[in-house]
Amino acid sequence: MKRFLLLILFFSFSFGLYSESNVTEECNQEWICLIQKKDEDGIELSIRNYNSNAKITNSVLLNATLVNFKTDIMFPYFVVVKGPSPIFITKFLLEDKTKNAFHSFSFRVRPGDWDSIHDDSVSYLLPFGPEVHAKVVQGYNGSVTHFGNFAHSIDFGIPVGTPVHAARKGYVMATESRYSEGGFRKDLLSKANFIIIQHEDGTLGNYAHLMKNGVVVKIGETVEAGQLIGYSGNTGYTQGPHLHFEVHKPNRQLEVTTIPTVFKTQYSERDTLSEFYTYWHPRPGVDPPKTDILPEDIQICKLNAKREKIQCGENTFQLGENFLVSLEFIRPGNQRIEVDISIDGKGFEPMKLDWVAQKNLAFEGRYLSIANNPKFVGRWKVRVRINGEEKKTLFFDVKA
């Protein structure tokens, strides 16, 4: 996640009378410009967006320190700046033209409109391509990072390099793609690559933890829903590769406030995503799945010596190697799993595994080792039943 908050200070000093009218403009690159028009009576202050695009919107909290000036507004002063045209803030009038005067301005800015009202009729697209099945590894009110102002955020567990697509039409407000490191360390909180897209209603979509150089859109570009915008990664404050997605707007304290959203999924046109469930784009003419697991998500995987999964879909093993019977459920539940393992042409009694899946997990598996014994050379057969229903039979060869 990227937390935008800029603190910019502009200082101006004035002594005695203003002898002539003049205009100065001081800008922070990419964000806001303060315009001061000075005359013998004082200073007129206006503010505009640095970016001249008509769709740009920033929320600004402005402060002023004044000596020998007066004004009719109270500070801090809140203003939403939309488009390129300057907004008049106030005129600071000199109280005593015979005395020295001093003023300074400071502001904080966050993209978006704190007065925006999210269009709840919008169904967002899943932020990846139609070929991807992605599990929500952390959902709303997640215990790791999705709490407080970030409670309505979603983490999709997808590999590094997975194409990321816009979930909703909008305007590219900001991007970052220079970072390469990721890890569960506080010093990496501000080092995630990201894309921020402003929507028509003034809210913002944040796509975070992208790979280095994984942004393919530019600031100022309008993107359509479903358009390729970048590639997922593992940068910033993260426990592993995933895509963080949220819709948010700023509040009056210039903090991010995330907004609950619904998505078009294989189940519904308006689906609220749940933690540990797997989602993909709906397909025309294809009914919602009536099963909790797909055949392709029952696999035999190769393990290394530390019993870490290194490759799935294997059909050849060596004596002494480890393997995993892997089951990735679309949605978690109390599933009874039965696995029978036998060797063709051998008179061994089949090995039987029988257990009940944990309700809060969508992944289940059992690790096994192939003994370094020639009698285990042959074609192995693995039959998988779930809740008494035969789901899949897998085969693999074991060689000496």
From TrEMBL:
Pfam family, one: Peptidase_M23
Keywords linked to the UniProt accession: Signal
M23ase beta-sheet core domain sequence ranges: 152-253
Keyword hit for Signal: yes
A GO MF label: metalloendopeptidase activity
Residue stretches spanning the membrane: none
Signal peptide feature range: 1-19
UniProt xrefs under InterPro entries: Cell_wall_metabolism_enzyme (IPR050570), Dup_hybrid_motif (IPR011055), M23ase_b-sheet_dom (IPR016047)
Protein name as it appears in the record: M23 family metallopeptidase
Species per Swiss-Prot/TrEMBL record: Leptospira soteropolitanensis
